[in-house]
Amino acid sequence: AGGGGGPGPPVAAAPGRAQVFTTVVDTFLEKLAAAGSYQRFANCYRCFYKLQPEMTRSIYDQFISQLQSSIKEEIQEVKDEGNLEVLFNSLDKIVEEAKNREEPAWRPSGIPEEDVRSAMVPYLLKHRSYLRKVLKEKEEENRKVAESVLAGRDRIAELQQLIQARKHAWQ
After folding, report:
1. pTM of the model
2. How far apart are the first and last CA of the chain?
3. Which residues, 6+ apart, have CB-to-CB distance to 78 below 8 Å?
């Protein structure tokens, strides 16, 4: 009668880039609100604050609320227009797949000619190998067709001789 499924407690998956981005935006908004504290706001509008402190507080709360919602809307618009959610998930997938690779990722050398050559030569060699294979197949196919054509010509020549022989025999 066994118990758990693994050797230890399950490891929580790291948050995806989309979630990290959302957290960063939320943290930014919190810090923005903290930086624009009510005390600073009241100091900027000291005369108004002295006359109507409750109204100043209400204006401050509305200002911060509108600022945060406006920033959130703008960021959401950027996320939607740039399709960031999908791109973040795609990047997470690429990074996850790259973890299993043993060879290091390609990095540019700084010399464009070498970079192009290093990227293109393996592809071109593979393509050349493929083309050679296709060429051999076509050559073999052509050889068989040529043999068939020659056999057909030989058969036609035999039949023509047979016709000629019967024609002479008939006369």
Report:
1. 0.47
2. 103
3. 84
